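Reading is simple: each integer encodes one residue's backbone shape. An example follows:

___
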Amino acid sequence: MDFERTTMMQFSEIKRLIETGHTNRQIARILKCRRTLIAEVRRGTMSGELIVAAKKQEMKNPPPWALRLDWSSIEKDIRDGHGIKQIWEESASTLTSHPNFFKYVKHRFALLLEATVTLREFHAGEHCEVDYAGDKIEWLDVKTGEIHKAHIFLGILCFSQKIFAWAAVDEKKANWLDSHRRMLEFYGGTPRVLVCDNLKTGVIKAHRYDPDLNQDYVEIAKHYGFAVVPARSKSPKDKAFVEGSVKIVMRYIRFIYRRRTFTSIAEINEAITESIVKINGKTHTRFKVSRESRFTELEKEKLKPLPTDPFENAEWKNHSVHPDCTVHADQNFYSAPHIHRHKEVRVKISASRVEIYLDLERIAVHARARGKVGERIIDREHLTENSRAYLEATPQTVLAHAMFSHPALHALIDGMFKEDTLGQLRRAQGLTRKAYATIQKHGRERSKIWIESAVAQMSRFGRIRVQYFEELLKSEMKKVTVSQVDRTIVRKPGNPMVRGHGVPKPKEDQTNIPQLTLI
């Protein structure tokens, strides 16, 4: 009787099948065990009490190598969620083999459970899975004393199971795309299919058959030439390899560096790089070779080559082309062909370029300006002739509004248009709108005086700005003093409550009053 290889679960299942009327051969085929074992259970020579007693006897008489280990420390590491293999490598690799250590730990702590595994087969260079680890790695900011959490991005090639990992400050779009770029450069090639989770930086709307992908994610897929196949919602088995690699990497890092305090993201990435090299260099239990060897020998040459130009993180925005033939992007103004004015366009802002797209056609491209804010980057081929632009409807409308406000404002804007019509159009619109708002609020008569004074002030100093014009109007309003307003009090006649303005009393006759003579 072999008590060591028989578990209580197996014994209970054999006993249940015997009671249901199955033969020894049928039970052996179902449970994949020896018929002699089933016969012993049927005869009653093996029972659950004997199995439990054998286990207890084994625990009372541990092997010699087990007496040399600190089992309280090992138990603490197991409770903290560290892997059995990592614990064996650190504490018992010189004393016994991993299978012996694994069996003894299983008997002593009963923490490991048997599971059913379905293997999936992949072709070299075909599939890659990516995801973020649920657990974060904490690091301490020495300057502020704050504790931050680093987000860990992981990728794995499904054929060789070579793992990549990288830490970033957050999971926003820029770090999501940058992690993909680093991963593909780490592998030295591009797989044909990439499986990701349904996070918003990658998938806008999840769908089993036709998901909506983020535009920036589509751009990086087109640049490197891989197809994005998001996993089904609430189906982690669709990316089982990367889910398993998350456990492997995080357990390894937490165990090896459990006594270390990280002080920066760079330190975390150094530790991750060291851990990944060790994990990829170990012999795989199923392949019998390391992940690195399997990747180098069988999969590396099957990957698609990387493009010559590296991918640049870009930001997409929707804008309409202004009547002055420019689009506002990145706090500057970039020109577009004048035939597309008032149309909705998409602007792609990368590190070095600004591209303007109408539908799927690129209609303009400019070098990204890195100078002062509000700079105008104009391609003269995008503009009409200045004389033609002067006769267009929008400048003429602005001039009409200026004439309505005040002739002085009309003369100022007319001179601006003669210098550069489209370049001064936005500023002229702002001036006329401020003047019109003042007239609507304070009346035409008083506002004309303020507008004339403000225009004269701007012309005198050569500082024609909308903000300055608004400040001048406000200061003119404050100049209205009390002396300029008629403050005379007009009292109604016949008010008896006001001294000196009531009904006058009749005067007394002074002739009949006796005169007093001083002696």
Observations:
- The chain has four domains: 8-109, 127-302, 315-383, 387-477.
- The chain has 18 helices and 15 strands.
- Residues 387-477 form one domain.
- Residues 92 and 491 are 109 Å apart (CA to CA).
